[in-house]
Amino acid sequence: MATLRIPQNTIEVLQKYNFRFQKKFGQNFLIDTHVLDKIIRAADITEEDFVLEIGPGIGTMTQYLCENAGRVMAVEIDTNLIPILGETLAGYHNVTVVNDDILKMDLGQIAREHNQGKPIKVVANLPYYITTPIIMGLFESQVPLESITVMVQREVAERMQSEPGTKEYGALSLAVQYYARAEIVANVPPNCFMPRPNVGSAVIRLTRHQDNPVKVADEGFMFRIIRASFNQRRKTLQNGLGNDGSLWVAKEQAAQALEQMGLSPTIRGEKLSLEQFAELSNLLLCMKESHG
Ligand code: SAM
């Protein structure tokens, strides 16, 4: 099969199979070789690596991955793409194509079975409609992971990387930064895809922390505090927590914890760093315990 490095070959393959793009699957195929090179370089793929690709499409990036990695598993939901991948990947013997929904797969089991439980690398031009569930699913399900290098909507990449006090900063920034170091490696305009998406895109690399950067007594509770703080972004943190029906935290308890931390009683959630959210949730839990 001819390389898909030449965009003309992409058009030929699509025509040969009379392929119809499906919006519901977030299908925007990459046709820019410079961007593909950048993704592969940022992911730092070597022959030692087992790479999971989410949504190979017609296999453009998969070909690059096969040329650089030890083994590649490519999971594609669209059944119409499977015969195409059979042709475009025919020359590679280190790839397995799986026709499935990535959100329904047990990725921990894949790492155990195919990579002896060693950390895997995830590389993808993600379907944007499920970016957050895919990334949070990978982190939360404890899949052994070294890094995730993915194309996402630019705005989402900025949220993942943003710092306290910026308008992009929120629950997603904190969740991602709890698990990984986030680094935007390229901004990618719509004309690098077929068809062109309506939004700008960016490649972001998330390198899994060896150890979590903060110590929390109850991870789930910290994330509930974080979500409650950003649900009511315009409210002060103590009101946001006190008003949230799903938490047991009273406004007075939140005020007391903030005072102990030396923070203003009128502070908003968007000003707190990950370390401060960890401290706040630990303090609130201590208060709960000491009051029975
Ligand atoms: N990797 C290809 C490229 O860069 O040209 C295609 C990227 S396209 C943005 C996203 C791909 O993910 C599509 O091929 C789509 O069919 C696939 N996809 C969408 N939802 C999926 C899911 N839940 N599980 C697996 N693949 C999915």
Describe the secondary structure blueprint for this structure:
Blueprint: H1 7-16, E1 29-30, H2 33-43, E2 50-54, H3 60-68, E3 71-76, H4 82-88, E4 95-99, H5 107-115, E5 120-125, H6 131-140, E6 145-153, H7 154-161, H8 171-179, E7 180-188, E8 193-194, E9 201-208, H9 219-231, H10 237-243, H11 251-260, H12 274-290
Parallel strand pairs: 2-3, 2-5, 3-4, 5-6
Antiparallel strand pairs: 1-8, 6-9, 7-9
Helix pairs in contact: 6-8, 9-12, 10-11, 11-12
Any descriptors?
Helicase, Ruva Protein, domain 3, 12 helices, about 40% helix, single chain, 2 domains, about 20% strand, Rossmann fold, about 290 residues, binds S-adenosylmethionine, alpha/beta, elongated, seven-stranded mixed sheet
- Content-based structural category: alpha/beta
Report the average pLDDT across residues.
94
Main β-sheet, in a few words?
7 strands, mixed
How many strands appear in the DSSP assignment? 9
Unreliable stretches covering 5 or more consecutive residues: none
Rg (CA only): 22 Å
Instruction: State the CATH class of the largest domain.
Output: Alpha Beta
Chemical compounds bound to the protein: S-adenosylmethionine
Domain count = 2
Span between termini? 69 Å
Order of helices and strands: HEHEHEHEHEHEHHEEEHHHH
Note the total helix count: 12
Strand content: 15-25%
Arrangement of strands in the largest sheet: 4-3-2-5-6-9-7
CATH architecture of the largest domain: 3-Layer(aba) Sandwich
Portion of residues within helices? 40-55%
CATH topology grouping of the largest domain: Rossmann fold
CATH superfamily of the largest domain: Vaccinia Virus protein VP39
| Inertia-based shape | elongated
